[in-house]
Amino acid sequence: MKKSTILFLTIIMALAFVGLLYMQIVYMDNMVRMRNEHFSEAVKRSLYSVCAKLEQDETKYFLDEGFVSGSSLYSSNILSDNNINSGDKNKIFQQDGGSLSNSHKDAFRSMQEDLKGQYLYQRGLLNEIILSILSQSSDRPIEERADSAVVKRYLTFEFENNGLNIPFKFALVNRGGTVIYESHDYMPQTKDKVYTQTLFPNDPIYRMNYLKVYFPTKSEYIFSSINYMIPAFVLTFILLVVFVYTVIVAFRQKRLSEMKNDFINNMTHEFKTPISTISLAAQMLNDDSVRKSPSMLTHISTVINDETKRLRFQVEKVLQMSMFDKQKTILKIQELDANLAISNVVHTYNIKVEKYGGKITANLDAENALVNVDEMHFTNVIFNLLDNAVKYRNEDVPLLLNVTTRDIADERLEIAISDNGIGIKKEDLKKVFEKFYRVSTGNRHDVKGFGLGLAYVKKMVNEFKGDIRVESELGIGTKFIITLPLI
To answer: Which residue in 129, 218, 267, 463 has the most C-beta neighbors within 10 A?
Structure first.
């Protein structure tokens, strides 16, 4: 499958998952908002009913105290007068076969006027009584007008009647904010959980009192309606994470597959230099003049030996690719003179550098260079760094390589390998030691590799209890600095 096809399917699936998550979030948000609105409406309706009941109780209180006894008396008089007048009226209608004389009509009009006057008088009395209740009720202590036990009983009844079977706390405060009484543990955390209702709204403004109610478990009650949605949301999110991980693995496997296809060509490139060097040395041995020179024979035999070692190192490097998947690398740690080992590597590598018209120098100034390392892997680390310098050389200028050693504080050895190559961009510096990561070389296509070289170098340096860092400037060069603990 093409990379573009995989990328297209990935985008489609990602959008589908994101859309599904978004719809679930919107649905849950709407459910919570609606639940909160219904809750607030039920609370306000309950508080209004409680306020109405308290006003009814106060009216009954004044009636029981005899404030309307006078109205009862006048009402009985009205009823008795009406009965009498009704009897007289019946008598009048019974006379003369139900016909009314002028005198009778006048009498009837007179009775109507009397009834009207009595009605107006009684209505005036009732108005005076109502005004008396309004003016005197606010003088009563609010604790008597709204007893805490009665208020709690009314609140409980109204909340249950409106389907709010959850704990609540309440308090009665005056206009100045002073608490008159409160239920146990009345400590609202936030104002959005407190509902306020004015008690006896007809009282004078300066005597206003307010009933405040809050619900400690309001949030749990609101979100209980979407509890079943949370597992679905979590499962969808898990599916999204698994999908993203699967896509990442698929791209990585595709990349590994491409690397596997180039494996043979890359290995040919890696083995080319040592094989060519050994072949060249063998050809030189066929020259009679060379065989007659003991010093030349010694030099050629040394080169063949060194290149054979390097070829073995390259094979070992390939075998070490499996090392990244292991928990622990098997190393043969031994005491080694880093100056001597680096000198041998530089001597061997000089042939390859000269092939590209370059020059390599070694300033091994460390007085104490004894370290505990695996000789083969340590030498391979130096070879890898030198190989990188050659691969990423600047073709416009002669290649210059410099290897230095020096003693630094805390009994550590510093090894620096610098070049005048193409350099590394700042955004790539933090990634060069990652496995399979390769720095872009622009239009150059002759740089081969697996993206494992520097990852291998870092792993080995860490195994040696050391550190490695890189300094580079684009177009100027790169410098790798290794620090190892001394013996």
So the answer is: 218
Task: Please give the structure tokens belonging to residue 85.
Answer: 């007048």
Residue 375 contacts residue 341 (beta carbons within 8 Å): yes
Residue 51 and residue 269: Cα distance in Å, rounded? Answer: 93
Pairwise CA distance, residues 412 & 426, whole Å: 28
Give the contacts of 485 (CB within 8 A, at least 6 positions apart).
Answer: 371, 372, 411, 412, 413, 465, 466
pLDDT tens column, 56-74: 888 787 766 644 444 444 4
The predicted structure's pLDDT at residue 329: 60
User: Where does 4-153 show beta strands of DSSP type E?
Assistant: none
Which SS3 state, helix, strand or coil, does residue 378 take? helix
| Distance, C-alpha 375 to centroid of its chain | 48
Q: How far apart are CA 245 and CA 191, in angstroms?
A: 44
pLDDT digits (tens, 9 = 90+) for 242-271: 888 888 888 777 777 776 666 666 667 667
> For residues 352 and 299, what is the distance between their CA atoms, to the nearest angstrom?
16
d(CA 423, CA 405): 22
Tell me the pTM.
0.45
Contact 308, 348 (CB under 8 A): no
Determine the Cα–Cα distance for residues 144 and 481; give it in Å rounded to an integer: 87
Tokens of 312: 């073995």
Please report the DSSP string for 38-59 in residue order: HHHHHHHHHHHHHHHHHHHHHH
> Helices then strands (H, E): number in the chain?
14, 11
- Give the DSSP H/E element, type plus range, for residue 485: strand 477-485
Stated as kind and residue range, the H or E segment containing 413 is strand 412-419
Q: What are phi and psi of 257, to 5 degrees?
A: -65, -40
Place of tokens 């050693």: 405
d(CA 210, CA 54): 13
Q: Which residues contact 295 (CB under 8 A, 6 or more apart)?
A: none
Which parts of 320-445 fold into alpha helices (H)?
Answer: 338-355, 375-391, 426-429
Q: Which of 94-98, 273-277, 309-313, 328-332 has the lowest mean pLDDT?
A: 94-98
Give the separation between CA 369 and CA 413, rounded to whole angstroms: 7
| Distance (Å, whole) CA 406 – CA 366 | 4
Confirm if 479 and 471 have CB atoms less than 8 A apart. Answer: yes
Q: 318 with 359: CB under 8 angstroms?
A: no
Closest CA to 54 of 177, 132, 148: 148
CA–CA separation, 71 vs 354, rounded Å? 128
> Scanning the structure block, which residue is given the tokens 């000269």?
354
Q: Are 450 and 259 in contact (CB under 8 A)?
A: yes
* Whole-number Å distance between alpha carbons of 487 and 479: 25
- Phi and psi at residue 56, to the nearest 5°: -65, -40
